[in-house]
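Lecture notes, continued. The same structure-token format from the folding unit now serves as the input rather than the output. Read the line below as a description of shape only.
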């Protein structure tokens, strides 16, 4: 498989893209690299992707009620597959519950 950075560099529209555009493109590429031909992930693939690519955000959150609620909702999903939109909602939800988000908010942005 081709590294994400190389895939990003092949997208001409991102050549002068902002950090936010590149971040979003990275998320889309990570998802697409794991998705099936229909562009969806199984629940097992979704959990695996979260554990391998989003560990910093979910680490230590397992005991929090909100985290458990989000993961339970994933398990209760009637469809067996997760599409990109649902995956992004899942990422945002997990990010908002994360201790890492608070650390990011505290990063100095000026000298």
């Amino acid at each position: 498989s081709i590294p994400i950075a190389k895939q990003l560099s092949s997208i001409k529209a991102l050549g002068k893209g902002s950090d936010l555009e590149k971040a979003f493109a990275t998320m889309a590429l990570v998802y697409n690299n794991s998705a099936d031909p229909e562009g969806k992930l199984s629940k097992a693939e979704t959990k695996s992707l979260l554990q391998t690519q989003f560990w910093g955000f979910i680490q230590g959150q397992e005991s929090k009620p909100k985290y458990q609620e989000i993961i339970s909702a994933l398990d209760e999903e009637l469809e067996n597959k997760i599409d990109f939109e649902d995956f992004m909602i899942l990422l945002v939800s997990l990010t908002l519950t994360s201790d890492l988000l608070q650390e990011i908010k505290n990063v100095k942005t000026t000298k």
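Point for the exam: The chain has two domains: 1-33, 39-110.
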